[in-house]
Amino acid sequence: MKVLALGDIIGSIGCKFLRTQLPSLKQEKNIDLVIANGENSADGNGITPASAEHLFTSGIDVITTGNHAFRRKECYELYDSEDYLLRPANYPNGAPGKGICIVDKGRFQAAVINLMGVVYLEHLNCPFSIMDQLLQKTSLPKIILVDFHAEATGEKGGFAYEYDGAVSAIFGTHTHIQTADEQILPLGTGFITDLGMTGPSRSVLGVKPELIIKKLRTKMPVRFDLSSGLCHLNGVVFEIDEKTGKTVSIERIQIKQTNLDT
Question: b or e along 170-201 (b: 16 or more beta carbons within 10 Å of the residue's beta carbon)?
Answer without folding.
Answer: bbbbbbbebbeebebbeebbbbbbbbbbbbbe
